[in-house]
Amino acid sequence: MSVLLAVNHARVQESSTGRWSSWPVLVDRTASSRETTERQGAAVELSVMLTAMVDTSSSPGRESDRVPRPREPRAAARIVLHAINGIGAGHLARQTALARHLRARQPGLDPVMLGSGPAVDEVCGEVPVIELPSMGRAGRYRGEPAHPDMLTAITAMTHAALTALRPRVVVHDTLVWPTVERAAALLGARQAICLRPRRDLADYLARPDCPLPRMDLVFVPDDPAVHPEFRQRLDEADIPAIWTGPVFRTAASDPAQTRQKLGVSAEDRMVVVMSGGGRGNGAEAREHFDHSFAALSRVAEQGLSVVLVLGPMFRPWVKIPAGFPHRLTVLRGARNLPDVLSAADLVICRGGYGSLHEATAGGARVLANPAQRDFDDQRARVEQFAVHHACELLQSTAPEDLAEQIGRALKAGPVRGLATRPWTESLDQVGERLVQLAHQDGSVPRGLAEQFMYR
């Protein structure tokens, strides 16, 4: 016999840490008819009692009837920002940056993050977040495929979380997980997408299940002058989009204070080594670290302080050459990574969207080794950054060549005058549009209701 489950709409309490302390409760609907009747009767009695109390408090001739009560301010509309995957932290970091902007500039919105993977605690910080299991990460655990029942459980938990939150708008980031889209549609929520430029846009739009035409709002977190072809394809597909400029986290602390916390003196040259190209939990990231430290061990400059940021999802080991000549600090995870990057003189990283924006925001020199990705042209991004920032494409990973390039970058020093900030006015346009959508009712597209079901 199948068991029908519904979500108890108990109010979700937010703790002082910003995390959600209580989860949606699944209620068994297979209770006996007698018990159900008793519950309904009790609910009716309570409703009658409350109505009587209201009637007696506003009887004719009372002062409360002649003096109008002040209108209560409208409560902030809750929106959910979904960060897909639990392999890289790029989607999560970008959605966190957007949530912080909305919390500061749009009092009419109450943004809540819906994420997965171990990076949630490190990245979201003070932003309220519900952490769900990640199907992508579960499928890579111990190199074994995830059990099909796990996907069913994650699907049910996602639907339960959205049902409890009752968001007015759901914002996706670049990739739309069908489970979230269907659950949001069934709840009548409007939907938006933060669409990072991707080189397969033509093929993506040609897919019959492409979600872009179903979105109520599309905004691109980049500069349209840098991606004219991407903009043209959106126009040809009749998909209007707001170009917001880069969306990334920014430093909150003074660089001098950050260096002091890390034990780095003002005279030392601070070098930060991190991955930052997506999928930072495998052999690819370890290889990047090994190349970097093999080269740094050959750099003869004195007063060098190296900070290695592993990231919360990095699992393998890192090979530190014997007799490494420089001061070394290892950070397992960096909750305030933008602060660390803003205090650096040199950053060695991959070519991920968030990593390059956060690394160059403070004016540090950046040596970037782009990773190969199917949908993300990191090499083109690094070359574009080299035009406007103190960013260089890694010429070679051979220890001798890389050591020489590191030495030249250290001599050139940081360029603090090139520090960048997000485009506040463009992001405000997105915030205002989200407020408008939050006070509209959504509709369930044909077929979505039939596609979503528990098994």
Automatic annotation (TrEMBL):
Domain Glycosyl transferase family 28 C-terminal: 334-410
SUPFAM superfamilies on file: UDP-Glycosyltransferase/glycogen phosphorylase
Pfam families the record matches: Glyco_tran_28_C
InterPro entries for the chain: Glyco_trans_28_C (IPR007235)
Gene3D superfamilies in alphabetical order: Glycogen Phosphorylase B
Protein name from the UniProt record: Glycosyltransferase
Molecular function terms from GO: hexosyltransferase activity
